[in-house]
Amino acid sequence: MPSATLEEYLEAIYKISLAGEVRPTVIAESLGVSGPTVTVTLRRLAAAGLVERTAGGAVCLTESGRHEAVEVIRRHRVAERFLVDVLELPWEAAHDEACRLEHAMSERVLEALERFLDNPEVCPHGHPIPSVDGVVPALVGVPLAGVPAGAEVSVVRVAEDNEAVLGYVASMGLMPGVHVRVAEVAPFDGPLMVEVGGREHAIARDVAGVVFVEVES
Fold first, then answer.
1. What predicted TM-score, i.e. pTM, was given to this entire model?
2. Alpha carbon of residue 127 to chain centroid
3. Domain residue limits at 25
4. How far is residue 127's CA from residue 114's CA, in Å, rounded to a whole number?
5. Nearest Cα to 72, choosing from 47, 99, 91, 93?
6. Closest Cα partner for 203 from 171, 156, 163, 177?
7. Contact between residue 154 and residue 180 where contact means Cβ atoms under 8 Å apart
8. Which of 109, 123, 165, 173 has CB 3.0 to 4.6 Å from 80, enough for a Cys bridge?
9. Counting Cβ atoms within 10 Å, is residue 5 exposed (0-12), middle (13-18) or buried (19+)?
10. What are the backbone dihedrals phi and psi of residue 184, each rounded to the nearest 5 degrees, phi first?
11. Which residues make beta-bridge pairs with 143?
């Protein structure tokens, strides 16, 4: 089993890969570490057979690396579900706490938690929980920032790695399952006016970019 540090890297590489090519500079930015630190850790991951480098220098997970990354994500999201649903931790605090728990949780405890929670399919922020077989459902939704005025949408997930943003989004009620009407979209990358639960809120374009929604028919 990889160390906690290596697991953090595998998780980050997997998530970055969902958006495109993984470069060491992006890994450094994601984890808040220096370039030389990333270089050293990538060598450790490569030596363990968990990552490979392409001819152009991009980072790719091997089959073993992907398996380990998905297992970390599974433990993380189940831990978040437990922290929010059972311990009633605020959803904006669950991500950081789950980052600590994900490295210490055994498969026995993980399976027991899944049974106790009735096998949840998504974390509190709406991200899919991988199956025991390593299957990760495809992400759905588009950024709220790109939705036109007048659209009726439902929130499906919210980016989970910024506690301050999560708290702000929650204060407006923009949580998975919530119905939203986009009342107005200001030009030149201005804010959106959205109606949530009968109340209107102005939301900055960058914040709206981390809220993913499905347009209602």
1. 0.91
2. 6
3. 4-61
4. 16
5. 99
6. 171
7. yes
8. 123
9. middle
10. -155, 145
11. 212
Interstrand relation of 211-215 and 142-143 (parallel, antiparallel or unpaired): antiparallel
The CATH number given to whatever domain includes residue 11 is 1.10.10.10
What's the number of domains the chain is made of? Answer: 2
Q: What's phi and psi for 128, nearest 5 deg?
A: -65, 140
Q: What is the 3-state secondary structure (H, E, C) of the chain?
A: CCCHHHHHHHHHHHHHHCCCCCCHHHHHHHHCCCHHHHHHHHHHHHHCCCEEECCCCCEEECHHHHHHHHHHHHHHHHHHHHHHHCCCCCHHHHHHHHHHHCCCCCHHHHHHHHHHCCCCCECCCCCECCCCCCCCCCCCCEEHHHCCCCCEEEEEEECCCCHHHHHHHHHCCCCCCCEEEEEEECCCCCCEEEEECCEEEEECHHHHCCEEEEECC
Q: Is residue 20 part of a domain?
A: yes
Structure tokens at 80: 């978040």
Q: How far apart are CA 185 and CA 86, in angstroms?
A: 38
Name residue 64's amino acid.
S
> pLDDT, tens digit, for every residue of 7-45?
999 999 999 999 899 999 999 999 999 999 999 999 999
CA 160 – CA 72 distance, rounded (Å): 15
User: Is residue 178 a part of any domain in this protein?
Assistant: yes
> Can you tell me the distance from the alpha carbon of 185 to that of 153, in angstroms, rounded to the nearest whole number?
14
**Cβ neighbours around 58 below 10 Å, total:** 15
- Dist CA 43 CA 28 (whole Å): 14
